[in-house]
Design goal:
This protein has about 425 residues and is an alpha/beta fold. The protein is built from 15 helices and 17 strands. The protein has two domains: about 210 residues, D-Maltodextrin-Binding Protein, domain 2; about 190 residues, D-Maltodextrin-Binding Protein, domain 2. The strands form five sheets. Strands 7, 8, 9, 10, 11, 12, 14 and 17 form an eight-stranded mixed β-sheet that branches. Strands 2-1-3 form a three-stranded parallel β-sheet. It is globular.
Length: about 425
């Protein structure tokens, strides 16, 4: 993630605002007015301040919100450890925090946040079932290992600090916003053969040309997908490993590193792009917009659909306890706008999914909907929300349809019970 000097995200959007500096975790249609908001607004000086990741806090989205809503919205982009740190130590410094669901085991028990009342969220019925009782977008979807968002999504009351059975109350911990599915990026022109399994990232054929994301909560899961696919180990839960499973995984990573297998353990969005563009790396863990950025430079790159499924993530809004009165009404109106469809169309054009995806459909032209959500060949050129050509007529989105991608989640980004031990051992791997 790259941020400019005033704290707002630039248009060089990574997907997550990388997990840089993992110590904090280890310690653990634009412009159209939207009607129907519950609050009746007078000419009052109200500002809603948000702190979140670069994907959800950027100037263009801030402008959209300010044009649609009768109060001021100020967004600040930060990286995950900073979001956690501010939420835990300076909760009055913002009116909304926008962390990944994987951080909720750290954020929610602090007691710094109040629960959302779903009966006061007009679009809650439109939110996909992933965040409700079943924890699945569709009945036949995979639940996935690790921290499924529904497992940390509900609490017993407005001021509670616990997690309860999904769907058992009207109180939610984190107002869901975005999700997506991650996989391996490959250079098909160099590899020259089909790639269909996570195990290929540890294939000796690619020794010295393979890359891995340098953050333990993500990189270890990508490696685990490979080790299990290769028949080396069967994890009980890839997203919540035992110490023994962590030891096996880290020892194998160190072995591979000592053998010269890893060309790079990357930590920034731009690094992952340049490694692929240069050809130094031909297969690696990647994020969807990074694959697009490689393609924009005229270099073939595929975000490969793999038989074992995807590693997934989700973002949401956490509501600090200090927010009350008319400010609280404004915050509820802001998140309602987020779910109403215009923001969804903006995010869809970056390859992300807003959790009220059927509302997105109302604001996304049919050919674009067919490309992004149905997995159909593009009948028009596909542009990003910033006006940059992303795909030409005839292109098909990597991984196909929304249902194929989000219905096949093998593991969720998670903070494991043994996260501190994992981080210590990961540091051994990085230093090897």
């Amino acid at each position: 993630m790259s941020n400019n000097t005033n704290g707002k995200a630039t248009t060089d959007v990574s997907r997550r605002g990388v997990l840089k500096g993992t110590a904090a975790v280890a310690g653990l249609a634009a412009g159209s007015a939207i009607g129907g908001f519950p609050t009746i607004w007078a000419q009052e000086d109200i500002t809603v301040r948000t702190v979140g990741m670069s994907v959800s806090n950027m100037p263009q989205l801030e402008d959209m919100a300010n044009e649609a809503l009768p109060f001021k919205v100020v967004q600040t982009a930060a990286q995950i450890p900073d979001i956690i740190g501010r939420g835990l130590n300076q909760p009055k410094g913002a009116d909304l925090f926008e962390p990944p669901f994987m951080t909720m085991k750290v954020m929610w028990p602090s007691g710094n946040f109040q629960a959302w009342d779903t009966t006061k969220l007009p679009e809650w019925d439109a939110v996909v079932d992933l965040y409700k009782e079943s924890g699945k977008i569709w009945p036949d979807a995979w639940y996935g290992d690790g921290q499924n968002p529904s497992s940390v999504g509900y609490t017993s009351g407005p001021d509670a600090k616990d997690f309860v059975k999904p769907g058992s109350t009207k109180w939610i911990t984190n107002h869901p916003v975005l999700h997506n599915a991650d996989t391996l990026g490959i250079r098909p022109d160099v590899i020259g053969r089909p790639i269909d399994s996570w195990k290929e990232i540890i294939n000796s054929e690619f020794s010295g040309r393979a890359g891995l994301v340098a953050f333990p909560q993500i990189g270890l899961m990508d490696a685990a997908m490979a080790f299990q696919a290769n028949g080396e180990i069967e994890y009980g839960d890839k997203g919540n490993m035992t110490r023994e499973e962590i030891d096996f995984s880290i020892d194998r990573l160190i072995q591979l590193k000592n053998d010269g297998h890893w060309r790079s353990l990357w930590s920034t969005f731009n690094d992952s792009v340049q490694l692929m563009v240069s050809g130094e790396v031909v297969i690696q863990s990647m994020w969807s917009p990074a694959v697009t950025a490689v393609r924009e430079q005229g270099v073939p790159c595929i975000y490969q659909d793999l038989v074992e499924g995807y590693r997934s993530w989700s973002l949401g809004h956490c509501l600090p306890k200090h927010v009350e009165g008319k400010k609280l009404g404004a915050v509820y109106d802001y998140v309602t706008w987020y779910h109403s469809g215009t923001a969804g169309a903006f995010f869809a054009r970056q390859g992300y999914y807003v959790v009220t995806w059927q509302n997105t459909k109302k604001y996304l032209p049919g050919p674009e909907w067919d490309f992004w959500f149905e997995g159909k060949p593009a009948t028009v050129d596909i542009y990003s929300p910033f006006g940059k050509l992303m795909e030409k007529v005839g292109a098909v989105r990597d991984g196909g349809s929304y249902k194929n991608r989000m219905g096949r989640i093998a593991v969720w980004n998670s903070v494991m019970d043994e996260n501190e031990y994992l981080t210590d051992r990961w540091n051994e791997f990085m230093a090897a």
